[in-house]
Amino acid sequence: MKFTELNLEGSLQEGLHAMGFETLTPIQEQAIPVILNNTDLIACAQTGTGKTAAFVLPILNKLAASGNDSTNTLIVVPTRELALQIDQAIQGFSYFTSVSSLAIYGGNDGIMFEQEKKALTNGANIIIATPGRLMAHLNMGYVKFDSIQHLILDEADRMLDMGFVDDIVKITTYLPKQRQTLMFSATIPPKIRELAKKLLTNPIQINIAISKPAEGVVQGAYMTYDSQKNKLIEHLLTGNDLTSVIIFLSTKQNVKTLERDLLKAGIKAKAVHSDLEQAERENALLSFRSKQTQVLVATDVLSRGIDIEDIGLVINYDVPGDAEDYIHRIGRTARAASKGVALTFINEHDQYKFFKIENLIGSEIKKLPLPDGFGDAPAYNPEVKPQKKSFQKKKFFKKRNNKKQA
Question: How far is it, in rounded angstroms, from Cα 74 to Cα 122?
């Protein structure tokens, strides 16, 4: 289906044409008519399926048609990166309209807080906010959401994981009861269904490609010891014409170490983690988007909420603890029907976690041999569950106590 078939406002069609949007993705084709019909919606769609445009475009179309000057739409998201991404998408789509938007998120200075306060009191059409920052403004009593007609919860499962459910429920008490509520989530566990029952009224449900990687992703894995990982990354990146690579690591300390090692090897890399100021994170992303930086080294703060085209390679330095997070990590490549490669490093402790990922996606991922000169790799015994740390700790203290008694 073509966007021209939707009969959207002319000013919005101009923005779509300028951005090169022609054909709807499945989530857009199913969700946009529902939203235009003012019906509540719960949509299950993984990252990279075009869901941002699926909820942004119909809202912009309503605003472009009505010329509304008040705060019409509230979009609640789990991270500042996602807030900025959605705000940038809105600015692109609405370029030829008079619609205004503002992203509100934590980590900014007092000047930015005052700018947010001004937008909340004077009425930007669309507010995109993280729950904690929005609650800080709401608690001060000056926010007026009387004219809100649309509430959108994006990455609802992630907000649940991050403990934002109580904040979300509290935020809804500041909104009119008569509104359209849209919930987008990569997964729909029971707790998400419970939240939907509280907030949505007779919603339409849409399910798109649940828990499956994009078809354009070529997946592979290396069995490696931790001591081999940095050297393997240098080997993979040196001499290859890869302009955009994201490497995901589980800890910010490993992110810092890998960034240092890559820079020493002459590879243009920048790190993104929670210790950086927001301006530093934005500068790193800008450098990566403009191809000045070849490699972005990041924690899972970027596994959702970053929309950068032409990422040719994603490397999972560690196997993610949650099998669903694997889908989101590798979803950074092969976006919008393009092609990409996702590689995962599996050490001797993470094999069962990777086995669970293969079960989730319903296929075995090819194990690649280490390059010559790297030495032996760990043997692959995926169905052997690792011992719990608590058990090992008890065993250690028991042994130590026995030594004391002796």
Answer: 15
Residues in the chain: 406
Looking at the chain, the number of H-run helices and the number of E-run strands are: 15, 14
Give 344's DSSP letter: E
Q: What confidence tens digit (pLDDT) does each residue in 328-385 have?
A: 778 766 555 557 889 999 999 999 889 888 887 888 999 999 999 999 999 888 766 6
Tell which residue, 141, 219, 146, 148, has the closest CA to residue 181: 148
Cα 137 from Cα 380, distance rounded (Å): 52
Instruction: Give the tens place of pLDDT for each residue, 107-146.
Output: 666 678 888 888 888 878 999 999 999 999 999 999 989 9
Task: Answer for the pair 125, 99: CB distance below 8 angstroms, yes or no.
Answer: yes
For residue 2, the 8-state DSSP code is B
Distance CA 384, CA 368 (A): 21
In whole angstroms, give the CA distance from residue 210 to residue 255: 30
Backbone angles phi and psi of 217, in degrees to 5: -90, 120
Sequence-ordered alpha helix ranges (H) in 19-67:
26-36, 51-66
The pair of structure tokens assigned to 271 is: 């790190």
Which domains, and CATH codes, for the chain? 3-208 (3.40.50.300), 217-368 (3.40.50.300)
| pTM more than 0.90 | no
For residue 300, give every residue at least 6 positions away whose Cβ sits within 8 Å of its Cβ, in sequence order, or none.
248, 250, 320, 325, 329
Alpha carbon 342 to chain centroid distance?
16
